Amino acid sequence: MNPLPAFLAPAALLVSGTATVEAVRERPAPLPIEALAAPAAPEVPVVHQVRIEQQVTIRIAPRQQVLRPQLFTPFPDEDGGEPRFIERKMGRCVPLAGIAGVQDGGRNRLILYLRDRRIVSATLEKACRARDFYSGFYVAKNDDGMLCVERDQLQSRAGANCQLSAIRQLIEVGD
After folding, report:
1. Number of neighbours of residue 168 by Cβ within 10 angstroms
2. Which of the chain's ends, N or C, has fewer CB atoms near its CB within 10 Å?
3. Beta strands 99-104 and 161-173: pairing type?
4. Residues paired with residue 34 on neighbouring β-strands, in sequence order
């Protein structure tokens, strides 16, 4: 290639007049190096949000054997006989704050001792065993503060999860 035309081309642009100067002025300016990089992601506004949740779990402890012997094992009363209990229907819920203790009642039954001196038999669903609840249970507190049949989930400290299928009040019957 002949270097002379390449050398004279800028001089020819200067001599040729205003038409070429205007053409040079209309030509876009070169882009800065930052513009050649990948396009920046649109700026996302930063939102700070805090969510506070509160869950209260209540532990029902086992009834101490010192205070009252095992309910369904024979123990003599004043007459030397065994006490007998009958079950009586009651509502579908028991106040959680009213439960003083729990005890294994055999098979799938728990015995709940209430603070007002009532005794309640709580039947667990068929697949559950009461002996899993030997050391008490946990239950999540509801807005109404009640332990209800077919609603609340009892969790034993051993890991079993069960629902109540029925509750009945136990009343001692004299002979």
Report:
1. 17
2. N
3. unpaired
4. none
Per the model's pLDDT, the better-predicted residue between 4 and 146 turns out to be 146
Domain ranges of the chain: 3-36, 57-173
User: For residue 8, with 0-12 CB atoms within 10 Å meaning exposed, 13-18 middle and 19 or more buried, which class applies?
Assistant: exposed
Query: For residue 89, is pLDDT > 80?
Result: yes
Type of residue found at 27: R
Confidence (pTM): 0.59
Strands 99-104 and 137-140: unpaired
Cα–Cα distances in Å, from 20 out to 6, 24, 96, 161? 17, 6, 94, 89
Q: Which residues of 52-68 are buried (b: 16+ CB within 10 A; e: fewer)?
A: eeeeeeeebebbeeeee
Q: Using CA atoms, how far apart are residues 67 and 63, in angstroms rounded to an integer?
A: 8
Which tokens belong to 17? 């007049």
Return d(Cα 85, Cα 175) in angstroms, integer. Answer: 11
Confidence band of 144 (pLDDT split at 50, 70, 90): very high
b/e map 102-111, b = 16+ CB within 10 Å: bbbbeebbbb
